[in-house]
Amino acid sequence: MAKDGDAFGLFDATPYPELLAAASLFEVKCAASRAAYCQCKQQTPAPGECASLGKELVDDHKKQLDAMKSSSCSTKYDELVQCLTSSQFKFSPCMKLQKLFRDCITELN
């Protein structure tokens, strides 16, 4: 059985802890592609109509994640992933690390 989104090439195999830790990266760096996709989904009832924008959003996430992993923020990101994993994905024990990571990616420009 195909995974949800496979038909449109939207499935992302990035593990959950990494995606969860990168949420603030995506919020900061992928706002335009996310807004375009969300606007399309709100205006278009047909499931496949927004597939190209969905693919652009997934590609944008992958591009930003790859760029961040080769930046000075990668250590903070790895620490945040480890904290989230060890805390069973609860943000409260990791809030200081999350702030450090968010500050770092915001400064990347």
How many DSSP helices?
6
Indicate the radius of gyration in whole angstroms: 15 Å
Name the assembly state.
Answer: single chain
Global outline: elongated
Strand-pairing-aware structural class: mainly alpha
Helix content range: 55-70%
Secondary structure: number of strands: 0
**Major sheet details:** none
* Low confidence ranges: none
N/C terminus separation: 41 Å
Overall pLDDT metric = 86
Query: DSSP strand (E) fraction?
Result: under 5%
| Helix-strand topology string | HHHHHH
Overall tally of structural domains:
1
Protein name: IMS import disulfide relay-system CHCH-CHCH-like Cx9C domain-containing protein
Organism: Spongospora subterranea
Structure description:
This is IMS import disulfide relay-system CHCH-CHCH-like Cx9C domain-containing protein. It comes from Spongospora subterranea. The protein has 109 residues and is mostly helical. The protein has one domain. The chain is 65% helix and 0% strand. The protein is built from six helices and no strands. Helix 3 runs antiparallel to helix 4 and helix 5 runs antiparallel to helix 6. The longest helix is centred in the middle third of the chain and has 19 residues. It is elongated. The termini are far apart. The mean pLDDT is 86.
